Amino acid sequence: MKNKLKKLNSLGFGCILCSLILSSCDKDILNQLPKDTLTEEFIWTNPQGAIQFVNGIYGNLHSGFDRNYDGWGKGIYLLDGTTDDGDVCMPWTHANRLQTGEFLPSNAPWSETWADYYNLARKTNVALENLQKLEDQSLVSRLTGEVYFLRAMVYHELLRFYGIKSDGSEPTGVPIIDKALTPDDDLQIPRSTYDEVVNFIISDLDKALPLLSKKGEVEAGKATTGAAYALKSRVLLYAERWAEAADAANMIIDAEYTLFEDYRTIFLEKNNNEVIFAKKFQSPDKFHFGVNNGFDVVNSPRSFKGPNDAGWGGCVPTQNFVDSYDMIDGEPQATSPLFDASNPFENLDPRFEATVVHNGSVFRGHTMEMFPGGADVTFEPEDSKTGYQLRKFHEEQFPVYSKSSDQDWIYFRYAEVLLNYAEAKNEATGPDGSVYSAINTIRQRAGIPGLIGGLSKDAMREKIRNERRVELVFEDHRFFDIRRWGIAEDLLNGTLTGLKYEKVGNDIVYTRYEFETRSFPAKLYVFPIPLSEIEKNPAAKQIAGW
């Protein structure tokens, strides 16, 4: 990331904090309360009112399942679909603009993101200024800890979308607002530096930690000490504060979390011991999008028919990603004697079958036929161009359209903490035994041999990055990882590869092909402030190059 500012030509930043920051979200949970009780006095003197106010902040955090604006079809519901790992099949979605680099501040997809997050930040400030009015001091303490965590979470999201790490003191972070603004305040608040925002987040987490409880001592879905340390490790990792990131991650390692034994069902078994913090969904009241357009529908192949529609194609893996899996002997495909190009899916890391659907896969009780003339080729625009579909997150025991999706979205899980530790420790001191232990714990859960000692720091870095890619795929990590590592231009300027199937007799012939050309201008290392926000504040400055 150290060269990004040069590529972006001395970025100049500004911000606009308009009435959107001061307004309430339409989906605010407070709207569920009787309208005649929606008073400041009720909220901050009534425990249930305060609890619901804080719950509303949790409920409006964006997730990979519900990041949908102006109708779901414009949503960025799985960010990995715009990286080298995935493709977004639906041609009408805004995600395709990221794939092609056609992304303008005047027509910025997901422009609501900026205002949404600052609205949530304002709500955290309102809560922190009013919670002391409650009589129950134990409740005050708990909710205050949760709100500090939530404010840190909001600023983390803002920073990784709209900020960029720099070597200097340029204001390349986002505006820090630590109080509830009123119309009498100066709303022209400039961006802080990247490091200032990081320090603000860490300060909030340090305030939260002594007030939070451990996993199992509070309701599932609420902030815990583990969640605070997990967020702290990620924020410091992104900031390249290696030793501090490793220390934060180490506070969780060997604590109350473990790797769940079955990689496939981590995402389906709610509240399992690998989950550190998740957004809760629960049918029939809380599900993704709607009854007939939940995650399973959106990400099922077009050939999977319902009473009124079919699967919508969704996000699908690329051959570029499939190539990143090691073989079951622990060696890369390129060097393993087990790899057979005529039978490319045999002997791969078991996480492959848990994540990816290919020709011959049994998916939702159906054997996939993805060759010309097969049952799963419909010649619709939403058909997969890569030769793959996504299995990860799917509840396959339910036929498409039988029920709405209600998988929890996992923001932090123990495997990420181990990967955060390995990367940070390797960068800080090199690949010592603790780095190998963190990586090999994950590989052994997957069912492949651990890394053998003797790797250099550079070689270990590449192993860690690949392990992170495979383990966390389609969990909103790759999108930010390739940006913070400074390699997005190398990976996303050019063609991506898919796989074609041809049935010859009883055999399948596999042919790699280039299915799409991507474009990644350097300015996409950071998102622009939407022009609509800039226009509301003439003092705001846009990012150079946008």
What does this structure look like?
The chain has 546 residues and is mostly helical. It has a domain at 1-67 and 110-211 and 529-546: Serine Threonine Protein Phosphatase 5, Tetratricopeptide repeat, CATH 1.25.40. Helix content is 35%, strand content 9%. It has helices at residues 4-7, 19-22, 40-45, 47-59, 95-100, 112-130, 137-162, 194-208, 225-238, 242-250, 295-298, 319-322, 351-355, 414-429, 433-446, 457-471, 478-484, 488-492, 531-535; strands at residues 86-88, 275-279, 315-317, 356-357, 362-363, 366-367, 389-390, 409-413, 494-504, 507-518. Strand 9 (494-504) and strand 10 form a beta hairpin. The radius of gyration is 23 Å and the shape is globular. The chain starts with a helix and ends in an 11-residue tail after the last helix. 47% of the residues are buried.
How far do the termini sit from each other? 19 Å
Strand arrangement within the widest β-sheet reads 1-3
Q: What is the C-level CATH assignment of one domain?
A: Mainly Alpha
Q: Give a quick account of the main beta sheet: strands, pairing sense, barrel closure.
A: 2 strands, antiparallel
Please supply descriptive tags for the structure shown above.
546 residues, mainly alpha, Serine Threonine Protein Phosphatase 5, Tetratricopeptide repeat, two-stranded antiparallel ribbon, 19 helices, 35% helix, globular
How is the topology of this model organized?
Elements: H1 4-7, H2 19-22, H3 40-45, H4 47-59, E1 86-88, H5 95-100, H6 112-130, H7 137-162, H8 194-208, H9 225-238, H10 242-250, E2 275-279, H11 295-298, E3 315-317, H12 319-322, H13 351-355, E4 356-357, E5 362-363, E6 366-367, E7 389-390, E8 409-413, H14 414-429, H15 433-446, H16 457-471, H17 478-484, H18 488-492, E9 494-504, E10 507-518, H19 531-535
Antiparallel strand pairs: 1-3, 2-8, 4-7, 5-6, 9-10
Helix pairs in contact: 4-6, 4-7, 6-7, 7-8, 7-9, 8-9, 9-10, 9-14, 10-14, 14-15, 14-16
